[in-house]
Amino acid sequence: MVVCFMVFALRLKKGSLSSGMLMSLQRNKRKNSERIEAFIMRYGSDLAPKRYSYSDIKKITKSFKDKLGEGGFGSVYKGKLPGGRLVAVKVLSESREDGEEFINEVASISRTSHVNVVTFLGFCYESSIRALLYEFMPNGSLDKYIYHHRSPDKSCILNRKTMFEIAVGVARGLEYLHRGCNTRILHLDIKPHNILLDENFVPRISDFGLAKLCERKGSILSSITARGTIGYIAPELFC
Fold this sequence. Notes:
This protein is an alpha+beta fold. The chain is built from five helices and ten strands, in the order αβαβββαββααββββ.
């Protein structure tokens, strides 16, 4: 009898703990949703890109039919706008509940306009759905060409002239982000995977999930901590 009571008590305690954790997660999720909505309401008039509904996203991607790739951030799908323009739709993973990456990307890239920075066309925030719409880059990301030995496709091999022009284009894009915008934008995750290539292999800097907005005056290094992908973090951050 005593043993049965102890087992019942332990189960009750375990159940109450799980309920408490669930309630805490729900509260945090609600706060994060309110935070994102507050951001959109505050800066909505300054955000040129259009806000789409989830039903719009499903139509644009034909119910997420054509997946271009996936990663820790979520998945990317090919889509088409009503006017016929091809787009890439990045749907963020639901596990990223803090909303920081979503806010970073919308806040930073909506301020940009440069040939070497990917064009941001719109976003979707509806319940737990967070999606970002960009111009479609037919030649994919630079890593496919740098690590071409991993692919049997000989078309992935670029000549030196093209590689040089890509490097110069990326440098111009970074120069624009650091000095050409009214607000300095630090990307903090420049790597081959985040450099997209158009039909003419003109590079576009993409993925601003870790980006940080800074004042044009003052030191960059004093305002940030080291973050990004190991192997690509700026070495001066560790000095």
